[in-house]
Amino acid sequence: MKHLDNLYNPYQTPRHTTIARNGMVATSQPLASQAGLAILQQGGNAIDAAIATAATLTVVEPTSNGIGGDAFALVWVKDKLYGLNGSGHSPSSISIEDLKKRGYKEIPKYGFVPVTVPGAPGSWVELSNRFGKLPFKNLLAPAIRYAEEGYPISPVLGKFWSMAADKFKDILEGEEFSHWFDTFAPNGQAPQIGEVWKSGGHASTLRKIANTKGDAFYKGELAEQMDQFSKQYGGYISKEDLANYKPEWVEPISVNYKGYDVWEIPPNGQGIVALSALNILREFELQEKESADTYHKQIEAMKLAFADGEKYVAEESHMDVRVEALLNETYAAERRGLIGEEALTPEAGTPSKGGTVYLATADGEGNMVSFIQSNYMGFGSGLVVPGTGIALQNRGHNFSLDPRHPNALDGKKRSYHTIIPGFLTKGEQPVGPFGVMGGFMQPQGHVQVAMNTIDYHLHPQAALDSPRWQWIKDKTVWVEPHFPKHVAETLARKGHKIEVQLEAGAFGRGQIIWRDPNTGTLYGGTESRTDGTISAY
Question: Which residues form the active site (predicted)?
Fold first, then answer.
């Protein structure tokens, strides 16, 4: 197998690859990536740039994330990779018994029941305190400016915003949801492409977070407002839940895939699903990328990994099976042996017991950040705290109401989480951050991007542009319109139910930054399926 040095061969680099030396920010919105770049040019590092970009994204891409959402980060600093779990826990007062008394047979998607403590603002502060160079207040200035002065709506953003507003008009009933429409659909409709949108409440909230290093959000005025809004409509989340929250530094987990270490955040995130699939795939000799055999094995491995994830993954302290058991080579070999020539309906094995934005940043000093942030399902719960721009997330929807399940709903517990940042290393050297946002597409996107890079030596942009597939359930697989037709037909003969999906958003949206260890040169790829861009210098 060729070394990834081939990625840095000038004669093989596609013309549309972004190359720079001093700093790079890759994300789904041009204004956000420029905000991060401005911070780098002011003397900030990759961590500062990631915070500024993330805060700006809550303003310029509210269809996918917000102040009331969660975040995760993988941070490379001084030859070490650090992990931050910025997911919030459930309210302490919630329980399966209480929901059943209220007549719930499943956890709803919208309203106060699925609302969990927002972890994103706390994550920004935690990253700044540990690794930042510039004052925290400076980092939120671009986001505050865009919220206060407004910005024109970009094409993909406008499309998803309109779709969300149309859906919410049909399904959100009740006075508590009126504040979402006041904030995000003024005058009765979503802002149109090219129209300038702004939010004074959002700007005010970000300013309070900036001036107090998050204390206003978790212990002060904003916490009081969230608490009052929740009490008014019988919600569970309280100011005590907010005051008791703190992001957690964690040890990243990895598998070695054909000489490269692929890193993820440990559970409660679903990154372990991507690692499990790669662990199954690593012993296969997959010679040709655009072949039915390659895609078949990828899909089957992904199914098996998801089946295990659904059964076993939860907040790690509640899991019946240890992470090491799920990633054990003996168990991977057992799962690998189930893959034959025909498509299977996946079932979990028996190991030994024991609406999202993604961004990547890098600076000239070698620091790199893989960061992901989300409200879930687009705008989250459909609730906006009056006058604040805080759209509350609905992560609690992923809990189980089966008390025997590791991911069973309980008070002050983190749910199984979809958002996952990725990172690639070789030996002791960082290759760089990567990620693909988009619900349960995320681990599937991670596997496809990692294999495009390692097995097929594609440059960052080519690795992202390559046709994607998504396993949905049982034997159903979605493919993009430009997916090779002859491969799709052969997969169908193997028993896969292949469906062409026209909506590009179904296949995730990714970013990549690789760093040449010899020269420090940065190579970036951004998502062509959205308003993605790279800012660099």
Answer: 356 (nucleophile)
Task: Determine contact, residues 107/419, Cβ cutoff 8 Å.
Answer: no
Q: Is the pTM of this model over 0.85?
A: yes
Q: Which residues are annotated as a binding site for L-glutamate?
A: 439
Q: What is the CATH number of domain 250-356+419-517?
A: 1.10.246.130
CA distance 435 to 453: 13
Residue 532 to residue 60: CA distance in whole angstroms: 12
- The binding site comprises 439
- What is the torsional sign of CA 226, 229, 230, 231? positive
Q: Catalytic residue at 356?
A: yes
Q: How far is CA 319 from CA 202, 273, 305, 350, in A?
A: 38, 14, 16, 14
Strands 533-536 and 429-437: unpaired
Exposed, middle or buried: residue 2 (CB in 10 Å: 0-12, 13-18, 19+)? exposed
CA distances from 395 to 71, 88, 116, 270, 419 (A): 12, 9, 6, 13, 10
Closest CA relative to residue 152, chosen from 302, 29, 290: 29
Tokens of 210: 């900036």
The Cβ-side half-sphere exposure at 377, using a 13 Å CA radius, reads: 21
Catalytic one of 18, 58, 205, 356: 356
Domain layout of the chain by residue ranges: 17-93+110-248+361-394, 250-356+419-517
Q: How far apart are CA 485 and CA 175, in angstroms?
A: 49
Helices (H) and strands (E) in the chain, counts: 19, 21
Q: Which of 118, 369, 68, 75 is nearest to 246 (CA)?
A: 118
Let me know: does 114 contact 68? Beta carbons within 8 Å: no
